[in-house]
Amino acid sequence: MRRVLTATALAVLAMACGGDSGEEPVTTSEPPTTAASTAASETTASETTASTAGETTTTTPDTTTTTADTTTETTAAETTDAATPDTTTTTTADPTTDATPDTTTTTVPGPPLTPSPLTGLGVADPDSLSRRTMAVKVDNHWDARPQVGIGEAEAVFELLVESGITRFIALFHSVDSTYVGPVRSVRPTDPHLLRHLNTTVLASGGQDWIINTFPRNGVGVIGEIGVGGYRDESRQAPHNYFVNTADFRPTADQRLYPNTPPPPLFEIGDLPVSGIPGGVSEVTMEWAPTNTVTWKWNGSTYERHLEDGPHTWTHVEGGEETITADVLVVIFSRLFYTTPPQGGVTLPTMETTGQGRALVFAEGQVAAGGWERADTAQPFSLTLTDGSPITVPAGRPWISLFPDGRLVSW
């Protein structure tokens, strides 16, 4: 079933996408020749081997000595680990029977994993949750596709920029990416949207008047400094700058940017709907007349499709996949244009405080309601029309800050 939420005249955006004036100078470094994907560490309980006592007979001319049958019980040490259940193993050997000991294994579930504040999913290494979030401003121009590393992000924001295209803000908190991008410049909405998440933003420059708004909002920003960033000469500039998020963490420390973990993005729980799972099979979002995105539910996750086919991303070591998300959150927001203080070209900007409509898609279902945010230091609060909270299922979320009045259908 397809419903149309809203349909109004689409706004015509003001300027073509390209290099941004005032971007920081580019320092070119050689890209790494190899890079391993970051993976959560796993711990396996050690195996315990039991010794078996046998029967021994010693004979002398006058004396025969026979040892008594011996039964030995060995119990494996209990091991508690975030990723490995407790295991107790009892091994009993009987020398009068078969040589193979009888073994009984009892598995006891270990403690639950600590959840990520961005996804609600358990994290094997809880120490990775005690640090800042690195936010990467990722290009979405057609010359920037396929993006690299964006599928490794724990959460992604999508916002409108010039010429009807969008850009992404990929969030890396408990994980890092060795190679993510292409990276482009910041926009006026960014520091206001990210302030409550205690992030440090990695970007490819930006106009000075925008860069100056970041410290005023308590958000760190790092441009191209020649450490941890690389130009890929196989791609066309300016769509060829990539970063290693882990390499920029020491720089953020040196600049005394806050190293504070983010609060939960949303309240985690079952989606408050009573519909049939899988009943919403597609979600179509018309960002602009030339930019329509469709998310298709495949039974386990949402796959992103553009008008000409699946929207893919690549791993640094190779391999191409369709961009996916477990949860789609649509924040309808007022679109306006900001003019530089000294005059110049206006830039599209999204309102990030106040209130408005909201949609949450998960497990092939949808919950419709609204959002509210009193100031930029607080997270978005999602509620149903009766005022009860919209809880969001655990999983990797894709949050679209979508222009109010434009079409979303399913």
Task: Write up this protein.
It is a single chain. The chain is mainly beta. It contains 4 helices and 30 strands. The chain has helices spanning 190-194, 208-211, 213-216, 245-254; strands spanning 57-59, 64-66, 73-75, 86-92, 102-108, 114-115, 122-123, 133-138, 147-148, 155-160, 166-172, 199-202, 220-222, 229-231, 241-243, 282-288, 291-297, 302-306, 309-310, 312-314, 320-322, 324-325, 327-333, 335-338, 347-350, 354-362, 365-373, 381-384, 397-403, 408-409. The strands form 8 sheets. Strands 13-12-8-11-10-29-23-26-27-28 form a 10-stranded mixed sheet. Strand 6 and strand 7 form a beta hairpin. The chain is globular and about 60 Å long. The termini are close together.
In short:
This protein has 410 residues and is mainly β. 6% of the residues lie in helices and 33% in strands.
Task: Please describe the structure with a list of short key phrases separated by commas or semicolons.
410 residues, mainly beta
Q: Main β-sheet: number of strands, strand sense, barrel status?
A: 10 strands, mixed
State the total count of DSSP E strands.
30
Instruction: List low-confidence stretches.
Output: 1-29, 33-98
Shape: globular
Coarse structural class: mainly beta
Strand content: 25-35%
Kindly state the percentage of residues in helix.
under 10%
Radius of gyration: 28 Å
Tell me, rounded to a whole number, the average pLDDT. 81
List the helices and strands and how they pair.
Blueprint: E1 57-59, E2 64-66, E3 73-75, E4 86-92, E5 102-108, E6 114-115, E7 122-123, E8 133-138, E9 147-148, E10 155-160, E11 166-172, H1 190-194, E12 199-202, H2 208-211, H3 213-216, E13 220-222, E14 229-231, E15 241-243, H4 245-254, E16 282-288, E17 291-297, E18 302-306, E19 309-310, E20 312-314, E21 320-322, E22 324-325, E23 327-333, E24 335-338, E25 347-350, E26 354-362, E27 365-373, E28 381-384, E29 397-403, E30 408-409
Parallel strand pairs: 8-12, 9-20, 10-29, 12-13, 23-29
Antiparallel strand pairs: 1-2, 3-4, 4-5, 6-7, 8-11, 10-11, 14-15, 16-17, 16-30, 17-18, 18-19, 18-22, 20-21, 23-26, 24-25, 26-27, 27-28
